[in-house]
Amino acid sequence: MSSAIVPVYARADVAFERGEGVWLTATTGERYLDFGAGIAVNALGHAHPHLVAALTEQAGKLWHTSNLFQIPEGERLARRLANATFADLVFFANSGAEANEAAVKMARKRHAVDGHPERYRILTFEGAFHGRTLAMIAAGGQAKYLDGFGPKVDGFDQIPVTDIGAVEAAIGPGTAAIMIEPIQGEGGVRTIPAPFLRGLRQLCDARGLLLIYDEVQTGVGRTGKLFAYEHSGAVPDIMSIAKGIGGGFPMGACLATADAARGLTVGVHGTTFGGNPLAMAVGNAVLDEVLAEGFIERVARLGAFARQRLAELKDRHPDVVEEVRGEGLMIGLRVKLSPADFAAAARRRHLLTIPAGDNVVRLMPPLIISEGEFAEGVRRLDQACADIEAASPLVRKGAFA
């Protein structure tokens, strides 16, 4: 019988029925080492006891009330996020795309209440990915996501990344904000240089623009800092987060300074499900772990260990692995073949990875991974590289470079 699911996913021929820590068990009983974490979502791994307890306890009390009423756990989570970051205020949503939509609306409304509704355009960057809504595929600007969906939503201008002159030249009387991922995830784990981010901050200050960071993939400890902007010191006005903050439960948030958010008043924006008691219970449980003493520092140490081991892998297989990229446990391997083919080779060795743009395979294991488990993952990557070399003389000659 054919599937009744809309066929928009190229799913691998494997299904999982349970997980524990960094391991997943398939319906066949085979165990897989998870270096994808549900695309950087399962920050604390699978079936983390504290998250399970928080969700179970809340599920037995209250699931949903709507935002027509007070939600104490949401107030608590917002205060904890604000206290740990630059932000004064938090808007809760259900996904990264919704958090990015809130960020864009917030920036536009801020200029409108200042008497400049003409300032609604957002500068974004080539190779970016901000989500799948009509506005967010326009923000990303990639033809493969835009094709066939009618006119592109107006208000987004793509410019080359790391060219501060191009950014300055693109700013016009209608520009409201600059929006960027500190590390492009879908774009190939491309780290944006800190001097460029500091240059954006200076431009925004000089020209009265708002700086928006999309930290949907980089946030909540993934890069060895609570948020990736901390690496550069270039603080945003608005920041979107999702993925890791829910630990597997659908959740997003838009964080902002009070000044950036002052256009969002009662009735201007909203959500039915965002910030519901179930999500807030899980979000607080995630922060319990991530903000615990030494947790993020351990991620940074593991990231350094991981890059060393992967550099050795590259040296052993220079005709397969071209470059190691990333920060913390957000790592990219640029490979000399299709990243989907590389991911399939790794999967045959029972290791899960995530293809990305620019011929990159992402390695984003749960943040709780041990050195021993990461070393086991590298051993499986080594086997996958050897399999590729044995199967394809063209790869050995660098024909896919």
Task: Name the CATH architecture of the largest domain.
Answer: 3-Layer(aba) Sandwich
State the domain count. 2
Helix content: 25-40%
Give the number of helices. 14
CATH class of the largest domain: Alpha Beta
CA radius of gyration is 21 Å
Helix vs. strand class: alpha/beta
Low-confidence stretches: 396-401
Please state the overall shape, judged from the principal axes of the Cα atoms: globular
User: How far is the N terminus from the C terminus?
Assistant: 40 Å
Quaternary: single chain
Beta strands, count: 17
Strand order of the largest sheet: 4-12-11-10-7-5-6
Let me know the largest β-sheet: 7 strands, mixed
Going by CATH, the homologous superfamily of the largest domain would be Type I PLP-dependent aspartate aminotransferase-like (Major domain)
CATH topology (fold) name of the largest domain: Aspartate Aminotransferase, domain 2
Strand content: 15-25%
Compute the average pLDDT. 96
Molecular structure report:
The chain is an alpha/beta fold and 401 residues long. The two termini are 40 Å apart. Helix 2 (49-59) runs antiparallel to helix 10, helix 3 (72-84) runs parallel beside helix 10 and helix 11 packs parallel to helix 13 (371-391). It is built from 14 helices and 17 strands. The protein folds into two domains: 16-34 and 296-396, Alpha-Beta Complex (Aspartate Aminotransferase, domain 1), CATH 3.90.1150; 49-290, Type I PLP-dependent aspartate aminotransferase-like (Major domain) (Aspartate Aminotransferase, domain 2). Strands 4-12-11-10-7-5-6 form a seven-stranded mixed sheet, with helices on both faces. 38% of the residues lie in helices and 18% in strands. The protein is globular and about 65 Å long.
